[in-house]
Amino acid sequence: MNRPQKIAWCLVIAISMGVIAGGVAFGVLYFTVGMPKAAAGFGFVGIAWLGGFAPLLIKKDKGSVTFDERDRLIKRRAALAGFGTSYLFVGLACMLPFFILGPKASISVSWLPEIFIGAALVVFFVHSVAVIVQYGRGGKGEKS
User: Which tens digits make up the pLDDT trace of 6-25?
Assistant: First the structure.
């Protein structure tokens, strides 16, 4: 498994853990203390940002080619998939109130940071999944 795959797996695991922990905490707090305080449960999504330290923790391979044309193409496709999905997320987050509640619906400005954070999580998660899928799960001839 090469370095980009290791970084992608670290990001997928960290983002998944953060979103699951935040969702569980929100659910528990919603039924115990009510809605305004339940939003604090999403603080566990901060665990997802620990995956951002993966490039600092995973060592670079010495003495071998670390980046070639195939890697560049995989990185480009993964970036396109991530940003396209992020754009879809922002579009849905902004337009769903209109479609559900009607033309008189509005979005509070206080929701904009959450939409931004959600879009960032989506771009990193989809980028990482696309990298893993394009390289293949088995490693295919790469040394461990």
Answer: 888 888 888 888 888 888 88
30-75 residue pLDDT tens = 888 877 778 777 777 777 777 777 766 777 766 666 677 888 898 8
- Cβ neighbours of residue 135 under 8 Å, at least 6 residues apart? 2, 4, 5, 74
Cα distance between residue 44 and residue 26, in whole Å: 9
Half-sphere exposure of 128 (CA within 13 A, CB side): 23
Spatial distance between the Cα atoms of 79 and 126, rounded to a whole number of angstroms: 9
Residue 64 is predicted with a pLDDT of 61
- CA–CA distance, 102 with 40 (Å, rounded to integer): 29
Question: What are the structure tokens assigned to 96, written together?
Answer: 């769903």
Q: Are 89 and 120 in contact (CB under 8 A)?
A: no
Q: Rounded distance, CA 30 to CA 22, Å?
A: 12
Q: Which of 92, 2, 17 is nearest to 51 (CA)?
A: 17
* Other CB atoms within 10 Å distance of the CB of residue 125: 22
